[in-house]
Every structure is written in C-alpha cells, then in structure tokens.
C-alpha cells in the first residue's frame, strides 16, 4: 500500500471514529432529555410497593376454566387485590360475554360463532364453558370434547371454588356464560383488563357496548381496554381525542403501537411517542428483541406508562420480572405467582 493510500485510509478511519463518537454523544444526550407523560393522570396500572400486580390471565385458566366467573373467584381467593384479565365478544342479542375465542367450539359443549348466538339462549340451554376441546386453525371443533382438567389431571367444577362469604355457586356442575357486567359488578374494587377479540364492525360494536358498561358502572378508573386489532386501537384513540370518554380512560396499544414504541426507545427516540395510552402489555421477548429489561421498564416509567408482561408461568421468569421492576405479571397460575411473591428475597 503506497503512502497516499495509507493517508486516505487513515483519514477515513478518523472520520468513521468521529461519526461513531458523535452518534454516541447524540444517543446519550437524547437519553437525558425529559420525556412527555403519555398518561396525564396518576396511573392505576402502576404497581404499588415492591411487587408487581398479580394479574390472572383469563382468571387463571390453568386452575379453572378460562374466562369464567368461577375462575375469577378462584383468583380472588388467592389475592383480594388481583387484577382480572379477560377477553370479550358481543352476542347476537348485544350482550358482551367473556371468551378468549370468538367461537364456542374450543371452550364449551356447543359450536358456532358467538355473534350468531343469543346470550339468553346460552343461559336457557345451560351452555357449559368448562371445556378444553381440540380445534383446528379456524377454532372449529376437530375431535372429542374434553372437560377441563387442571395440571394434576383433576376435573374442576363450580363447587370446587373457594368463594367469598355470602357467594354461592351459580350452578353445581356447569360453568355458565359470564357477562362483562357480571365481572365488573362481582369485583367492584378490582382492576380489570378487557381485550376486545372481535374485529371490524363487530369489534367496534363490542367496544361501544363495553364503553357504555364502564360509564354505567363508573368503572373507567379501574378498567383498561386492549385489542390486537388496529381499527379498535384507532377508535380508542379517536374517542379519547374527541372527548367522548373521561380523562381517566385507559387503554393499551395494539401491535403496531407497541412496535412503534419499542423501535423508538431502542434509539432513545421515545420522546416522539405521543400515544395517550397507559400501559404496555408485552411478552418477555418479541422477534428476538428482549423486552424484559430494567432499562425498558425505566424508560416507560419516564412516560408515566406501566409495563405488564404476559403470559408468565415459570417461577424463574416471575422472579426476573420482579427484579427489573415490572408493574404487572399476567399468569395462568395465580397460586404459583402468589407463592413466588411470598418467598421472594427470603
């Protein structure tokens, strides 16, 4: 290599080093800039104390049948401050019921779209939500029905729940359909996460009815709404912007909203994230990116945003999320998470 080439290479390296140093300084400076509060009020989704909020996924659907009132009573027996996580769809007669699927095939003893059933018929026919049936990719029944069993292989019934004093099982054998209104009324002091499962116009209809219920029961300050459907998230933002909901209205972003924040915060550009939501509900990892870090949680807290993680069933993961300061841990096993809380640090 001649002298001229060496000189050019040396200058190129110096320029490259200067650029890297400049970018590093910019990155550090951006990290030090103040962040906007995406949720203006005191955030009810933040943890109180050192431990994350115990969030019962579907009521704790490995202990009792998913999204049944009985499962939520079981979770309540574990922790009276438990946060309820549920999924909802609207029926043909306009009732919002709890169900992870928009069909009945996987979780009940009947079949069909929830939107094609009347809630009144479900109750009259005693449709049983106490099943874990095999289904195909369209969530249609694909084999013999299987009654719910816990991790020990034991079948569970409504009478197996430890109920609060004065509460009796709705039925001795059948896990009846549960409405969102029943959940709100049955647990008047608990926080609830409500995910809209239906999409398009049907999902928007369900959302409108959910908002009506929150208004009727004065529950805006303890219920947070969520959906993986962008049209639902956009409607949540619109209602907030147009003043159709009170200031304490709470929601979590759909996939695009969460992705946008994750990318911005990786480059210390999260000051440009302006969505007026209140909580991120995330897996620990997504597409190879570790989201369960103390840095991620701390950055979100600068925006007055809570961070809840799903669905966490291993004790090691639970302990890690406590360590990084997570605000909530969503689990299928409320008893297991409660045990981790009781033994953590001892």
Q: How would you describe what is shown here?
A:
This protein is α/β, with parallel strands linked by helices and about 350 residues long. It has a domain at about 55-100 and about 180-340: TIM Barrel, CATH 3.20.20.190. Helices cover about 35% and strands about 10% of the residues. The chain is built from ten helices and eleven strands. Strands 1, 2, 3, 4, 5, 6, 7, 10 and 11 form a nine-stranded mixed beta sheet that branches. A two-stranded antiparallel sheet has the order 8-9. It is globular. It starts with a helix and ends with a helix.
Brief overview:
This protein is an alpha/beta fold. It has helices spanning 3-32, 69-78, 119-124, 180-186, 200-216, 230-241, 255-266, 294-302, 315-323, 334-343, and strands at 53-57, 83-90, 96-98, 192-196, 223-226, 250-251, 279-282, 285-286, 289-290, 306-309, 328-331. The longest helix is centred in the first third of the chain and has 30 residues, at 3-32.
Descriptive labels:
alpha/beta, 346 residues, nine-stranded mixed β-sheet, TIM Barrel
Distance between the termini: 65 Å
Measured on Cα atoms, how large is the radius of gyration? Answer: 23 Å
β-sheet strand percentage: 5-15%
Q: How many individual helices?
A: 10
